[in-house]
């Protein structure tokens, strides 16, 4: 898959008049729906055994061997709702690339990849200024999904992955 910077149109700060349709991957973690730009998502895998690691960021569940690459797994229950997800074989690992980093997100389910028209999502600054990790809020079916800016939302995990050992 080609390298991309996985940024949203016009970065995470979108101009309402120039907003375009956006492809997003919608997933469930805990009681709510969340989404990432579909361009940052590489694969969806079944949940598997995760090797715990010491001295890690709280949201990092451990690491997996993904086709010969060691990939950190982030518990999206902790990251999004401040409580860990159960270790359930029905759950999924959503593998995403953020810049040069690959991460696996432990989610309960991946629901859809959809093209969201401009009238079906709104940039966060227009309604909740100052929330740096959110790029927008997407209307999905009868509810809402929080659209994360991957680079901002996973900054702590990416920083811990980049530290020299």
Q: Tell me the CATH architecture.
A: Beta Barrel
Cα shape:
globular
Give the overall average pLDDT: 85
CATH fold name: OB fold (Dihydrolipoamide Acetyltransferase, E2P)
What is the strand tally? 11
Count of helices? 3
Largest sheet, in brief, is: 6 strands, mixed
Task: Bin the helical content.
Answer: 10-25%
Description of the molecule:
The chain is mainly β and 165 residues long. It has helices spanning 76-81, 150-153, 155-162; strands spanning 22-29, 32-37, 41-46, 60-66, 69-75, 92-98, 101-107, 109-116, 121-123, 134-140, 143-148. The chain has a single domain, classed as CheA-289, Domain 4 (OB fold (Dihydrolipoamide Acetyltransferase, E2P)), CATH 2.40.50. It is built from three helices and eleven strands. A hairpin with a 2-residue loop joins strand 1 and strand 2 (32-37). The two termini are 29 Å apart.
What features would you highlight for this structure?
disordered N terminus; 5-stranded mixed beta sheet; 11 strands; OB fold (Dihydrolipoamide Acetyltransferase, E2P); 3 helices; mainly beta; single chain; 6-stranded mixed beta sheet; 165 residues
Reconstruct the topology from this structure.
Blueprint: E1 22-29, E2 32-37, E3 41-46, E4 60-66, E5 69-75, H1 76-81, E6 92-98, E7 101-107, E8 109-116, E9 121-123, E10 134-140, E11 143-148, H2 150-153, H3 155-162
Parallel strand pairs: 2-11, 5-7
Antiparallel strand pairs: 1-2, 1-8, 3-6, 4-5, 6-7, 9-10, 10-11
């Amino acid at each position: 898959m080609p390298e991309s910077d996985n940024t949203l149109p016009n970065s995470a700060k979108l101009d309402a008049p120039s907003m375009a349709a956006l492809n997003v991957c919608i997933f469930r973690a805990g009681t709510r729906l969340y989404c990432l730009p579909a361009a940052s998502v590489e694969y969806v895998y079944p949940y598997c055994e995760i090797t715990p690691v010491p001295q890690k960021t709280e949201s990092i569940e451990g690491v997996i061997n993904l086709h010969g690459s060691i990939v950190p797994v982030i518990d999206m229950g902790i990251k999004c709702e401040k409580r860990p997800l159960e270790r359930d074989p029905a759950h999924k690992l959503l593998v995403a690339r953020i810049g040069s980093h690959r991460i696996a997100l432990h989610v309960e389910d991946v629901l859809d990849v959809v093209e969201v028209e401009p009238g079906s999502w709104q940039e966060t600054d227009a309604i909740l200024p100052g929330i740096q990790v959110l790029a927008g809020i997407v209307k999905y079916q009868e509810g809402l999904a929080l659209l994360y800016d991957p680079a901002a939302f996973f900054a702590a995990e990416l920083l811990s992955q980049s530290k020299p050992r």
